[in-house]
Each structure stands twice: as structure tokens, then as C-alpha cells.
Structure prediction request, 503 residues.
Amino acid sequence: MNENYGMTRRDFAKLLGCAAVLGLVDVSGAASQILGDGEKSLFALANGTARTEGEWRLTRIEGKLPPDLNGSLFRVCPGQKETFGVRMKHLFDGDAFLSRYDFRDGKVFLKAKFLETPQRLEELQTKRMLYSEFGTAKPAPPADYKRKYAGKNQPSVNVIRWDGKLLGLSEGAHPTAIEPTGLSYQGEWDFYGTLPKDVSFTAHPKFDPVTGAGYTYGIKKGAGLALTVFRMETSGKLTNIAQLPQKDFFMVHDVTMSENYLIFVIPPVKYDLPTLMSGKATPADALRYAEREPTRILILRKDGAGAPIEIELPAAMVFHHGNAFERNGKLIFDSLLTPDGSVLQTLHSLANDKIPSSTPNNLTRFTIDLASGKLESRTQFGSNHEFPRFDARQTGKETKFLYTAGAETHGFLESSAIMRHNLQTGATKTIAAGRNRIFGEPVFVPQTGKMAEENGWILAQGYDARRHESFLEIRDAGTTDFAARVWTGNYIPLGFHGNFYAA
Ligand SMILES: [Fe+2]
Prediction:
């Protein structure tokens, strides 16, 4: 095809995508052209470059939209996997691409667009990659070119509503304020001057369903390296509740919380400083997994009082947690641990034709005795999961269900199923995506006016490789029964996280 028409396969895919969005072609019939492009894994196919920006009413719906589903699912992903000829190497690389599914009056609308950060606009204007990404170095710029900004802050990991704002979160820097209707860039946000310039902000703050306050943290960089913990007051400001000094670079992606405690799990991931300082390596090139060092659990009172409990485990890699709760003097929480650092290599192989699979992770329940500060037990109840979600109204309380994107056969990134774990019985229900399909994070959406965990919906974006098309799957959270599948006519990379906010 490219010989005859002077088009690359990429051009053709783009044209096909535009035509599909406009309803000019049936994407299901033409998708084999794209699948035949190589032997990429489903995970790589699902995390390519976003296809089309715009706003649409989505009408190709299998099943029936729940009539009480009213509100918006905001998602964000790294949406550009090639910048002016440079292929992104790391799953975390690429400009933030936002999507918003709006449900109202039994209809569903989609708005999707890149976030026009000043750095993205500068690159578009100059038609060159001017800023290195987490795992991809920029080419040498022309000698006379002086770029305008220190670096890129990619809010492509998570997106939350807070204090009337939509905040895109990168975890490496401050949040980015985004206008929630038009999804336009507003600027970095420091919570009315209460987030210091040298402190980053996690992509996973947690919110207390009783008080409405949030709990968040960042890394104080430079001298006085510390895990810095804040309460997000309902006024919109942050209150610093703890400053926990750390000896060495540390990575902590998520936090979980019970009624009285915040729990951090810190894996032994370090930077090799000579590599990092060489000027020839990206941060991802310099990451090292110190397999002889412990993974540390830090348990801090939410009021910041006293010294945190610290427990050491054999080295394990950790990203995400489930819920946490207290019962009879014990603190119980669920977490996903991988027994080695292989996932770091997997994440950094996105540009490879063959992505190395990583060691399966384990969904693990920890029980800590609060009086002695000792680990009482750890039990494992499943492998190959990611993106754990639960009914956020039950944050800090014992929950019956945990939902994950799970892989039945391959590495956990090939999430071929949504899984619902009954944490009381140990039973797991598996909702298989089906052949050539993959699911992203399953977001729990409560049914209006109903408080039980059984009364909700699970919304998970999926990707169908045969159609080369994204869809949104809606399931009854109580029964896991199919409710609806909304086809987007578009390709939105699967990415990481999102959240639903009722209208
Ligand atoms: Fe995450």
C-alpha cells in the first residue's frame, strides 16, 4: 500500500482512523491491515499514539447504558509514542492525552485531546523533540537553539477533581490544572502556595469519605531528601503533617489508608548516580533495583503524631495497593508485590518489537499488629494483576470486593480480564475480555443513593486489536453481569488511571 500511494502504514492507519471516527468506514473490516503490521504484543498495540482529537456522541452501543449513570469518567494516558521521528522507549513517556466520557440522560459523549502544555506547543512549532522524557533522550538540538523551559511535566498518570479543578498528575512534579469542560491547559498548581516548589506530588492521593479531606505526599528533592506528607484540606490548601527523612533516592508510587493510618510501601529502587549525572542517560536508564536491600513498609498516623512504624520485607517491587482497615488492634491492607525488579525492564521496552514479560506479581494481604509494630502475617490470593480499585466510599474500612485488571495467561500488563476478588471468601470472578482484547483499570462507580458495594458499576476502557478501536465496558459491580459496551470509533491508548465524578 505504501508503495502505491506514497503512504506509510502509519499514515494509512491515521487516515483510516479519521475516516472511522467520521463514520466513513467500518473499522472492524479494515483492522487486519493494522494487526498485520508486526508481532507486537496486545499491551504494546494498546499503548500507541492516540488517533484523533475531538468530541463525539457515541451511538454504537452493545447492551443498554445504565439509566442512573450520570457523570463523567476522566482518564489520562501518555498519548504520543513518537515525537518528530523519535520513538518513545518507556511506557511512561509521551505527551498527556485526556479523555472524558460524559453520561447524561441515557446518552454518552466522548471528548479526547492532547493537553497543550507550553512544552508540547513549543515542540509542535519547532517540529522537533526538545525535551527528554523519563525513558527517552531528546536528540541533540541545533547549536543556536535555546529551549524555553527547564523540562516537561507530563500529567499523564492520573486525573482527579479537587477544589473545583481538574488536576492532571505526573508524580514527578506539581499537578497541572486543566479546565474541565474544554480540557485546556491552565498551568501548574501549588494549592494556593502550600505545595513547596521542591516537593513533587503523587499521582495517587487518597480521600477520606467521612471528612472529605485528602491525604497526599511528595518527595522533597535535593538537600533534606524526605517523604513529605500532606492533608488536602477542603479549603483547597495543603497542611504538612509529616516530613520523613530518607537516606537515599526512593520511589513510592501509591499510598493506602485506614481510619487512622497512612501506609507507604517503598521498594528498593535507586538511581545509579554516575549514570544519571553522565548527561547521556535518561532517569529510566539510571534506575536500579537493589535486590539485596529491603522493601520498607512505613505506617504513619494520619494526624502525623509520633514516629512511624517501619517494617522491612525481603526486596519486592510495588506500585499499587488495595484498601486498608483496622480491626481489633490490627492493621490490614492489600498490596501488589513483584518478587524482583523485572517490571522496570518491561516498562522500558515499549519501543521493542518483543516486550520482555516480567515476573508475575502477587496480590498480598498484610496484617500488622499495631501494638508491637510487627508484621503478623502475609497471605497471597492471586497473581498477575494491576490497577486495583474498590468502592472509594469505603476507603479505610473493610471492603468485600477488590477489582483489578488481571492477566489470565501472560504477564500482568496483558490484562485480558477484569477480576473481582471477594476478600471475605477468597473467591475470584473473572470477566474475560475475549480474543484480541485487553482491559485497562476497572473504575468503581456507585449507584446513586445506594451505599452497598454491591450497588455500583464497573467502567473499564478496553482495546480491541482486530478493530484497532477502544471501547468502554460497563459491568454491574454486584453481579459482574454485562451492562453495555460503548464503541468509540477511535483509538485512545490504554494508559493508566482515571476517575468518575457524578454529575
Ligand atoms: Fe498508578
In short: Confidence is low (pLDDT under 50) at residues 1-38.
